[in-house]
Amino acid sequence: MRYPDFPVLITQPMMPLIQQGIESRFPFVHLNEQADRAGFLAKEGARFKGVVTGQGAASDDALFAALPNLRIVSSFGVGYDLVDARAAKARGIVVTNTPEVLTDEVADLAMGLLISTMRRLPQADQHVRKGLWLKGNFPLSDTLRGKTMGILGLGRIGKAIARRAEAFGLKLAYHGRSQQADMPYPYHASLVEMAKASDILMIIAPGGPSTRRIVDRAVMEALGPEGTLINVARGTLVDEPVMVEMLQSGALGAAGLDVFEDEPKVPEALFALENVVLLPHVGSASVHTRNLMGQLVVDNVIALAEGRPPLTPVPETPWPA
């Protein structure tokens, strides 16, 4: 079915499933292809009712002001820190993301990254590939046995990670904005105190100004030289220069990182370190899960175009408004 009265602005290159899903149903324009973006928005902005976006482009109040008839921002990914949801709400715009469909994939990756970091699986792989096994056994690694993992952000994905971690015998604790009822894990009102009580810090909280560099020197010092930091959330949550310095000096034991502050730029100092595992932001990056996420982006726009409620509005823009 086509929706000729619901033009959509696509802010950046998107996966083929999204582009085909939007382009086959809606009038569309790729904003990133406009040589004079400001001029184009000033001239044509009033006709757009939908925006499709991802982590590569900001959707802020200036954009919303240029799109006076905008009704929905459909964002790819569970994180939407580049979308000003409060500004959207003030203008009557609903913001949607793609939760749930990626929960298990990210939780699996988080545990895989934890095991890879503590058991040094990439380094062991290189030990074999470089012929070093012929010269001697790979050094003994750390273990999950007897460890406590503190989770920063016990949301959907945090809970899925916790369930997996319990199966591995880890003790658990958590820190967030508030204590959650019916959670069996100890709650720490102080992130520093949780880090002090933990061997592993699992970071899975939302990004944005309120959590920027929340994992600072004090938190990493509390985690200490035997501690392991795992980040599958946003690179902005960690004071990256301090983390690099502490990993280099041994003040922080190890880190497994799927995200970085200025992706795809990664601090080159990390490349030479043997106590880190680095991934290119692949938490949800399976064909299966990315297809589900992409279809949800399209389906949210279709719902609004058909006069139905959006499927996954974010908390700041509940439906009905």
What does this structure look like?
- The chain is an alpha/beta fold and 321 residues long.
- The chain contains eleven helices and eleven strands.
- The chain has helices spanning 16-23, 37-44, 61-66, 85-90, 103-119, 121-129, 156-167, 191-196, 217-223, 240-249, 287-305, and strands spanning 8-10, 28-30, 50-53, 72-75, 94-96, 148-152, 171-175, 200-203, 228-231, 254-257, 276-278.
- The strands form two sheets. Strands 7-6-8-9-10-11 form a six-stranded parallel β-sheet.
- β9 (228-231), α10 and β10 form a beta-alpha-beta unit.
- α1 (16-23) runs parallel beside α11 (287-305) and α5 crosses α7.
- The model has no long low-confidence stretch (mean pLDDT 97).
- Into which percentage range does the β-strand content fall? 5-15%
Largest sheet: 6 strands, parallel
Going across the biggest sheet, name each strand in turn: 7-6-8-9-10-11
Specify the helix fraction band: 25-40%
Q: Indicate the mean pLDDT.
A: 97
Helix run count: 11
